[in-house]
Each structure stands twice: as C-alpha cells, then as structure tokens.
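Async update (no meeting this week)

Hi team, since we skipped the sync, here's where things stand on the single-chain job. The sequence we agreed to prioritize is pasted below, unchanged from the tracker. I ran it this morning and attached the output directly underneath so nobody has to dig for it. Comments welcome in thread, and please keep replies under the output.
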Amino acid sequence: MFRRNKLFTGITVLIFWLGVWAIAARAVNQELLIPAPAAVARHLYRIMTSGTFLRVVSTSLLRVLGGFVCGCLCGVVLAVACSISPVLNALLYPAVRIISSIPVTSFIILVMLWLKYTYVPVFIAALLVTPIVFGNVRTGIQETDPLLLEVAKVYRFTRLKTLMKVYVPSVMPYFYSGALTSLGLAWKAGIAAEVLALPKNAIGSGMYYSKLYLETADLFAWTVVVVAFSFFFEKLMQYLMKKRKEQEGEK
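Output:
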C-alpha cells in the first residue's frame, strides 16, 4: 500500500509540473524560450533514436564514473593519510578545504589549459568527489568507537584485523553517505565540464550545440537525459546502501 501511494504521489507531482510547464509554454508562446512538453518529447525521441545517442551517453557515463571512482579513491587515501599523520593532516586538510570552496567553473577553465579536452570532465568529476569523500571518511575514522579499539588491543588484533573488523565497519556508513552525495554532483559537474570543453561524443557538447544553433527543444531534451541519469544514480546508490545494510543485519 505504501509503495502504491508513493507511486501515485510521484505520478501526480510529475503531471502537476508538466501542466505548469505546458501552461508556461502556452503563455510565452515562443518555442525559442520555452518549448512545449510535446515538442521536447518529439526532440527527445529523435535524439534517442539517432545512431549516435548510445555512444554519446555511454562515453559521458564512462568519463563521469571514471572521475567518480578516482575521486573516491583519492578521498579515502587522503583521509587515511591525514588520520595517521598529523603532519600530513596539517598540510593537506587546508588544501582540500580550499578545493571544495572554489567554484567548479574556475577549475574547468583552468584544467582546460592543462589537459586534453577529453579528460577535463574526468578530472573535474574526481576533483568534486574527493573533498566530499575525504570529509566523510575522515569523520568516520575519528568517530570510531574507542572501546572497540581497546578490545582489539586486549585481544591483540593485528593491524590488518583491526582495520577490517573495527575501522571498516565504522567508516563504511560515512563513505556510502559521501558517495551518494557526490555521485549526483559529479554527474552534473562532469556535464558542465563537457559544455565548456566540448569533447567528442558528449552530452554536454550536444547541449552546447543545441544552444548555439538555438535549438531550445533539443537543449531541453538533453537536459531531460541529464536529470534522468542523475535520478537513476541516486536511486542506484540508495539501493546499494540498503542491500549493504541488509547484509550487515543478517551477519
């Protein structure tokens, strides 16, 4: 019953906002400014049935997911290093904080001077993910129960066993939370980097050229694709986190 009510609510909200969109398009009556939902749906169908759609989408996905994985690895490594060494923490923590506070657009323009345009979205996605994962994992390490660490010492756990039995279970919820937060942001930042860098076979490039040639319906259609994948990533991470908790509960 709850799932039915949730599905009904979701459909109702979707219909409401589609209605608002249709009314706004009718009121403006300029497809260049606000195309109607039906026009966007036609353009979306045309884009999705083109021979290049799957290649474009898969390439953008690989770039963003590659950057996401690299960012997660960097965030975890930096968090562990800063937790072990006070010197590294004093050196690296301010740099990570600065990175997280600088606008993404500034980094995109700067990285375009350093790397081939194909790699710019990967680097930007990784750069956005790293501070978030770093902060969450570092908090998870700091919040590890001291009593569990004392028990590990009493029973003479090896460092590896202490890591696997104490630290990892303590840190994983924080890591999953950071990954869930950063995945959607990485996707949006990666697409923004594609809009500026214009690599081949990219959703962001399609959005840019739609704007350049005043194909507003195409721009809306590509935006629908971006939103759909962002929603998919969020639901996928929530599902994985739920399955992980269920497995831990069974243990």
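Quick observations from my side:
The mean pLDDT is 80.
The chain has ten helices and no strands.
Reply here if anything looks off.
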